[in-house]
Amino acid sequence: MEKRRDLETAAEEIEQLFADLWQVFPFSRGGRRGYRPEVDCFRTDDPPAFTVLVELPGVDPEHVKIVAAPRALIVAGERRRPQDCGHYEQMEIEYGPFHRKVVLSEDIDPDGASATYRRGILQVTLPIAPKPTPRASVTIEVRTTGR
Q1: What share of the chain is helix, strand, coil (3-state, %, to 5)?
Q2: pTM reported for the whole predicted model
Q3: Could you tell me the residue range of the domain that residue 64 belongs to?
Q4: What is the domain-level CATH number for residue 64?
Q5: Residues whose CB falls within 8 Å of the CB of residue 78, separated by 6 or more in sequence, listed in order
């Protein structure tokens, strides 16, 4: 199970790396379609939670889909180009659908998650799931069968 999670994490990191490369090299932007919002994620201890900040200027928060899973957060939606803009003289702002997945280092409680949107920043708070209490050692008796 742990190896599978490691492979999934590695695949996501490679996908993220290529997505980041498209952002770094300006000559490649013309071939890329869509908008890729910037994301920050940090952990707090009191209370234990992750906070994910997503830059979404110009995105209607009612059209953003947020899904919380035990070790991941997905934020998806679309930044739409304004209608009736006339003839463009310059085009640098990226528009289109976006999908960001943030892999978390600890399990969270998805039921306790909350989100707010203010001044173009989406803030998602994800409480960390309580760790199960370790059980004391248990002695197991070996029984013999009728053989």
Answers
A1: 25, 35, 40
A2: 0.70
A3: 33-81+93-130
A4: 2.60.40.790
A5: 35, 59, 63, 95, 96, 97, 98
